[in-house]
């Protein structure tokens, strides 16, 4: 595995908002219920949540509490049953948003090389799409080469997905979500299936990317260290049907280092979040836990 | 891997040769009449001697098969695409398709004959009606099984339904499609011969029928050999194409086996 060397960047001004309109996300009294009648599953109870332009918010909470549902709401993949979801100043309409998304499962297309996989969003999102058609693929390919090098996938561009390890695929997955420089990035446990060391490496990569491009990021994770390392703000959700029960800002200075995650302040934050989730778990109905098994 | 493959092929070839040798020996040893079971050497001799007469029938069978096959593929792709893309169509049309596919096709030949007279048309239609089903099922399955997470990623990017179909659905369906082609071509062949046997005055199926009523048993077997040979050739041709075009679907296994 290539060792990643993340360039140490000067911390950017946090109030920086001059980019071509990063997106603010706002859920107002949004709730989601899947199915109807007897089969209705309340996945998310009435929730209001605001993410500022260029902010980095992590969402934590017990399993099944509706974190992925919030992500899918913001991405315009499910409609709110009640309330509204506003992204970038208008109600969610995915078409114009070019949102970057990555899940725990890398979902690379097996018939494409890693490079082609990573470039896939450019075949879909304007203005790259038209440029792609105008035979400017080579320019994109050079760009892809440079980017793959940067994330430690140099030389793996022409390989096929099954020739890469899980960690490398996850890198490619993350990069596919970023290739078109999205203004909003939605990440659903993107590092969940990785070993500790690869995960920490990718945290640093993501931090660097965020610091450089300052997209708005919504990260769902089960790893409190991950949330503390990456996010500006951490929201804790209650058990299903979830709502936000705690909203803390993460004061640590950037760029953060792995070392910092072992310091007292950081550990204290983790502990507090942990207690919140443990309480939320025991307060809510345990998942599928009605009656005897 | 290559080594293993060669060994396997040699064994298969050896087994085929052994089968014919045993057959030959069995006939010679038991003094079996060639009115019941001719020797393979007799069959081969008949086949070569009568080849000029058989050739037009071979062409007839092949052409009805291929016409039926091509039409069946076109119809199958169309139907499969509709069913695969639309969940509603998938749920509503499936029972009908299953019902249709479970009718023994020999039972539809008389209907085709009734409508179109005997000859090439019922043969083509029978071939078509047998071979389009595996195509429909495979195309529909391929299209309907796109990974939901990938679809989410693309939708969030603003991809249209068509974008997803073009970039993900279609390529994913290719291995299913080509796998179904080799099955479909064999089915089409069976359908064509079936119809010729029942209602035609041309084609290998008809030759066998006529020879059988004349007690020309070696010719019946010659027809059988030709059918077996053609069936294998058609299957192999489409397996070869499949391997060429959708190598990515099997490459992983190759690697594992090395
Ligand atoms: N398409 C759906 N149809 C019916 N119920 C659903 C659907 N998607 C999610 N749910 C239900 O909604 C609830 C919230 O799901 P969600 O995936 O948002 O949880 P989560 O917080 O992401 O959980 P995890 O941490 O385990 O990923 C769950 O109880 C789930 O069973
Ligand atoms: Mg989830």
Descriptive account of the structure:
The complex is a heterodimer of chains A (293) and B (258). Chain A is of the alpha/beta class. Chain A is 31% helix and 20% strand. Chain A has helices spanning 67-74, 114-119, 128-133, 137-150, 166-178, 196-213, 224-230, 264-283; strands spanning 25-34, 41-51, 56-60, 82-87, 90-91, 100-102, 184-188, 216-220, 233-237, 244-249. A 6-stranded mixed β-sheet of chain A has the order 6-7-8-3-9-10, sandwiched between helices. A 4-stranded antiparallel β-sheet of chain A has the order 2-1-4-5, with helices on one face. The N and C termini of chain A lie far apart (44 Å). In chain A, 43% of the residues are buried. Mean pLDDT of chain A is 81; it is low at 1-20 and 286-293. Mean pLDDT of chain B is 86; it is low at 252-258. Chain B is mainly α. Chain B has 2 domains: 1-32; 42-257, MetI-like (MetI-like fold). Chain B contains 11 helices and no strands. The chains are: A alpha/beta (293), B mainly alpha (258). The A-B interface holds A 72, 75-77, 94-103, 105, 107, 109-111, 120-121, 123-125, 160, 162-163, 176-177, 180, 186 and B 147, 149-150, 152-159, 163, 167-168, 171-172, 174, 248-249, 251-252, 255. The complex binds adenosine-5'-triphosphate and magnesium ion.
Primary descriptors:
heterodimer; A: 293 residues; alpha/beta; 6-stranded mixed sheet; 4-stranded antiparallel sheet; 8 helices; disordered N terminus; disordered C terminus; B: 258 residues; mainly alpha; MetI-like fold; 2 domains; 11 helices; 86% helix; binds adenosine-5'-triphosphate; binds magnesium ion
């Amino acid at each position: 595995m290539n060792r990643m060397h993340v360039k140490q960047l000067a911390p950017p001004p946090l109030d920086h908002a001059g980019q071509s309109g990063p997106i603010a996300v706002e859920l107002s009294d949004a709730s989601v219920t899947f199915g109807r009648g007897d089969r209705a599953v309340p996945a998310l109870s009435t929730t209001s949540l605001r993410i500022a332009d260029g902010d980095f918010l992590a969402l934590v909470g017990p399993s099944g509490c509706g974190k992925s549902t919030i992500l899918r709401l913001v991405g315009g993949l499910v409609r709110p049953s009640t309330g509204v979801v506003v992204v970038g100043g208008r109600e969610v309409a995915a078409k114009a948003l070019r949102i970057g998304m990555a899940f725990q499962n890398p979902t690379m297309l097996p018939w494409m090389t890693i490079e082609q996989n990573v470039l896939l969003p450019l075949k879909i999102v304007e203005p790259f799409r038209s440029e792609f058609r105008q035979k400017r693929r080579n320019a994109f390919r050079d760009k892809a080469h440079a980017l793959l090098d940067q994330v430690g996938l140099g030389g793996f561009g022409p390989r096929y997905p099954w020739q890469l390890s899980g960690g490398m695929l996850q890198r490619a997955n993350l990069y596919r979500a970023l290739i078109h420089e999205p203004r909003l990035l939605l990440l659903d446990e993107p590092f969940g299936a990785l070993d500790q060391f690869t995960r920490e490496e990718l945290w640093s990569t993501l931090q660097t990317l965020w610091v450089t491009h300052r997209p708005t990021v919504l990260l769902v994770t089960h790893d409190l260290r991950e949330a503390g390392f990456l996010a500006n703000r951490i929201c804790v959700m209650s058990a299903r049907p979830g709502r936000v029960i705690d909203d803390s800002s993460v004061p640590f200075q950037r760029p953060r280092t792995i070392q910092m995650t072992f310091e007292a302040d950081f550990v204290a934050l983790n502990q507090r979040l942990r207690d919140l989730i443990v309480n939320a778990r025991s307060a809510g109905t345990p998942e599928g836990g009605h009656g005897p098994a | 891997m290559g080594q293993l493959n060669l060994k396997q092929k040699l064994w298969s070839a050896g087994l085929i040769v052994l089968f014919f040798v045993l057959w030959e020996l069995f006939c010679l040893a038991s003094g079996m009449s060639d009115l019941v079971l001719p020797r393979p050497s007799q069959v081969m001799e008949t086949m070569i001697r009568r080849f000029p007469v058989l050739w037009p029938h071979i062409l007839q069978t092949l052409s009805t098969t291929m016409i039926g096959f091509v039409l069946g593929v076109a119809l199958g792709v169309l139907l499969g695409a509709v069913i695969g893309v639309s969940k509603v169509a998938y749920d509503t049309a499936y029972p009908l398709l299953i019902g249709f596919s479970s009718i023994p096709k020999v039972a539809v030949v008389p209907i085709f004959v009734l409508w179109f007279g005997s000859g090439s048309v019922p043969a083509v239609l029978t071939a078509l009606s047998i071979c389009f089903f595996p195509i429909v099922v495979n195309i529909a399955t391929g299209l309907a099984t796109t990974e939901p997470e990938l679809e989410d990623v693309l939708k969030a990017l603003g991809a249209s339904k068509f974008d997803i179909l073009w970039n993900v659905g279609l390529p994913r369906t290719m291995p299913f499609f080509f796998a179904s082609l080799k099955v479909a071509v064999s089915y089409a062949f069976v359908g064509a011969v079936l119809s010729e046997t029942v209602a035609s005055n041309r084609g290998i199926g008809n030759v066998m029928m006529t020879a059988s009523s004349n007690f020309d048993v070696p010719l019946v077997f010659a027809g059988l050999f030709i059918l077996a040979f053609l069936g294998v050739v058609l299957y192999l041709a489409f397996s070869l194409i499949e391997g060429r075009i959708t190598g990515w679907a099997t490459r992983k296994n190759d690697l594992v086996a090395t």
